[in-house]
Amino acid sequence: MRPSGGGKSSKGRSRKPTRSAILPWWEKLLYVLVAAIVATVWWNRVAPQHTVASFLTATAAPQEQKIAALPPPRIEEPPPPPPAPLRQWTVLFNSPTAGQSEVSRRPKIQIFFNQPVEREVTEWAFTISPSTRGDFAWPRPDHLVFTPEGALRPDTEYTISLTPVDGSREKEPYELLEARWSFTTGQARTYGKDIQPLIGAYCGTCHESNGSAAGVPLGTYRDVSRYVVPGRSGESRLYTFIQERRHHINMAGPDHSTNTKLAVIRDWIDEDKGTQ
Ligand code: HEC
Q1: For ligand 1, what atom is nearest to the CA of residue 211?
Q2: Measured in whole angstroms, how far is the alpha carbon of residue 261 from the centre of its chain?
Q3: pTM for this model (two decimals)
Q4: What is the pLDDT of residues 148-186, one digit of tens each?
Q5: Which of 115, 133, 167, 256 could disulfide-pair with 149, CB 3.0 to 4.6 Å?
């Protein structure tokens, strides 16, 4: 038996020392490490899809995934239709052309557009100056023909223009671009300038005083006038007789065809009223 010491020392020795008190610091650390390893192994078993790293990053998962999982938002109104593209209407080609001279006084004024146009708008925008009445025709939605009523004035500059129209606020927006050009009509035909030389060249052989058709003299203006109804070539025998080919006259030559010369007679009667 150990002699009981006095005082403190015997008391201290007799007290049972705690476990922690006897564990060195490295042993504590060992326990902590083992616990950490066990916990890690357990975590990987139970939730192998999660690594510690993924668990940590999962908290920072992208918000989009959550949004994608939500039901789609209810559509209250249909989305507005995309705005229709603006259509620009321009003149591609016109006849008579700009600056053209000696234009027939019964022209067909033709305009070809780059694409189909709105008829009403285009006819409204169309002007001819000096102002002339006439009719519109549309052989195609992109092709306008204006036919003046009667003959245009001789030797006159006519200007065709399209007033620009801004329809950009329409349901189907469009823009009619401005266009403007001028042409000059031919001189007035006269008996002396146009008809007398023609008759002299092609009709005289038979219609002069000693010819086979001496009974139908065509040597003077007064003679010729008897076969002309001013303004009405269809009723003027000077024109219809040849036009119906009853005469079988060949008026073709190096300069112009028979039809061109016939047209001179017709226009002289219709447009110039068979003036001297
Ligand atoms: C080859 C001869 C010949 C030539 C060329 C000729 N004529 Fe005639 N023409 C006649 C004869 C013949 C008559 C009479 C016919 C008849 O009485 O039916 C006639 C009659 C006419 C008449 C009268 C018709 C009527 O209704 O009474 C006119 C108008 C006329 N000719 C215009 C012309 C013109 C214009 C030309 C020239 C572009 C022309 N002729 C060239 C032979 C000719």
Answers
A1: 2
A2: 42
A3: 0.59
A4: 998 899 999 999 999 999 999 998 999 999 999 999 999
A5: 133
